Amino acid sequence: MTLTLIDRTRRTDAAPDKGADTALDKGVVDTDAAPEKAPDAAPRRAVGREADGLAVASFVLGLVGLLVFNIVFGPMAIVMALLALVRHTRRRGRAFLGLSLGVADLAVLAALVTANGTVAWSIGG
Questions:
Q1: pTM above the 0.90 mark?
Q2: I need a labelling partner for 44 at 20 to 30 A (CA). Which of 51, 55, 68, 101 fits?
């Protein structure tokens, strides 16, 4: 079994000595040329990655906060979600879910405090 790799950036059907049209070769990319690097590409990528991490962390903290430590995890999820949205995360949906779960954590906490009169609660009743 043989694996054949096709280089789609070079045209093999028209030889340069046969008068191939150079207008067709405008989209051809020279793979031997050194790639241009943006001088500030690394900091931008780090900020985007950090914002994505904040969105995921807010979602996870909001989800866990529904079960335990909602007095701590709820506000943390809200703050992390807002920071992720301010920093223009690519995971906006996850940041909004983290924000809504953080608010839900505080709503569950408020409902349990009014029902029991205490911040401590247990699943078993």
A1: no
A2: 101
